[in-house]
Give the backbone structure.
Amino acid sequence: MKKLSNRSLYQKLLFILIALTIIPILMISIYGYHTFSRVLYNMITESNFNNVDQMGEFLSEIYQDLDSILTKVTIHPDIQDSLKKESKNDWNSYQEARFFTEYTNLLMVGHPEIKEISVYNFEGKRLDSEGHFLPGFEEHFAFEELRSNLENQFVTTSKVYNVDGDTIISFGKKIIDLHTGKYIGIAILDLNLDYYYQELGDAKLLKSGFFILMNQHNEYLFHPTNKLGTKSNHFWINQTEKYKLYKDQNGNQLLYFMKEVPQTGWKVFGVVPYDEVVEQFKPIRLGFFVFIVIILCFIFLLAFSIRKLFVKPIQKLQESLIDVQNGDFQTRVHFNRKDEIGILGTHFNAMVMKIEELIERVYQSELRESKALLLQKQAEIDALQEKITPHFLYNTLNSISWFANQKGIREIQIVVDSLSQLLRYSLKDDSKFVTLKEEFDYLKLFGEIIDFRYDGEIEFLYHLPTYIEHTLVPRFLLQPIVENAIKYAFDTTNSTKIIEVNCFQQNKDLVIEVKDNGIGIENERLKKVYSMLDSSVGTIMKEKGNPESTGIGLPNVHQRIKLTFGDEYGVKIESEPEQGTEVTLILPFIEERCL
């Protein structure tokens, strides 16, 4: 893949246009769509939950009305007296039944959903809202169930029963003697659920959502399709969240809303197909899609205009430059415009004319030069190139070394050999990386030259573990650091001068430490050194002659490491006055076979 710098101007402009317009707009649009969709989703779910909540409140109000009716029946003193006393005769039983019928029917006014109200004591006596008082009537179908439930409760409900074609659920409540507090009987209210089915069935959530009513026994009190009174074992019946997403057996996603009806143990569920919720997002998706299409069309027109107004004229100028490069000095550009591009075209035409004139002059001048002069010039150039050729210098150093060996001047031979090997190392190849062992060998050669120069004043210590000898490092990494230490670390007060180079692996990093026992660095100067490490090349070169500067070696090595491996690597300096200086190089540990 081409680098951006190698691409055409138009491709760069397109890239900038895409990077600064299309990508941000797409990101903002996608973020906006998801944010708005999430807000809309929350609004839809809250709206549907409110409907379920209202249905739960509606059922709670019904329960409270029914509980109020049962309470009036259970605490009425005449009814309690009837249950506590045996009837003296049939007339007395008739009077009690008539009173109970009239009283309960009065309570049932406005409540057509109440099928019957009845009371029982535990000696078999019964009164009901239909006026039955003679013995022989069958016991209430839910009496035993309610009586059992009321052992641990004050109010309870029964299972769902089908009585004479009606779907009935019975509410039972204890009758407590107001004088003694004794449990003397049960009041039962039979509720015909059919009266609420139409209201529950007509209530819709979105397009096809529906309600489900469950009792405390996990039986259906209402379901649009399932048989009432049947027990459900679906996993959603134990839901505690306000709303939650489930999958049915066909893989369809359904959103279930849940509201508990207080005091009854009942639960109202609202069920909404998730597809209908997602369908509410379609207008938003369409709006965002249209918006993006319009923006893309606008950017396309902008790109076309840029190409026509700016790129094509520059391409024409480029083609003309190539023609001039190929020797066609008759080419000209014609831009009928007065902006910068028009001025550039005018200057280009003038430049080509001037070049043509200069070439003609040079050509005429060259014709006047003699062949001898040209040969002489060529000879001088060849001689100059030979003098500055590094290989020539290398061969010369070898000759000096041979001569010193012949004359028995051992010291000169050693230093010349070292210098010769240093030059060979620099001419070896143009590889960016070398092994750590090669870099250490180069450093030792440099140390031999320094040892000769300073007459052995400085002692060099090298520690290179065998297991990291083949680690790869940039070329000429250590010599600038050691040279910097030689130049700045010591003064006349140092009787013993030691420079120690240590290497070791630390996790995935290679650490190289260059220590000296010199005069150290003051805090203020150390701060300046750190500021120089991250300075630009121009600033480093300006500071080169400054006596306060540490030279360009440290910043050069630091910048090379950072540019090669990243900002987490580089040079660190620790120093205390009169305590010496430690320069630490941190690089990634790269084995030779990995590169």
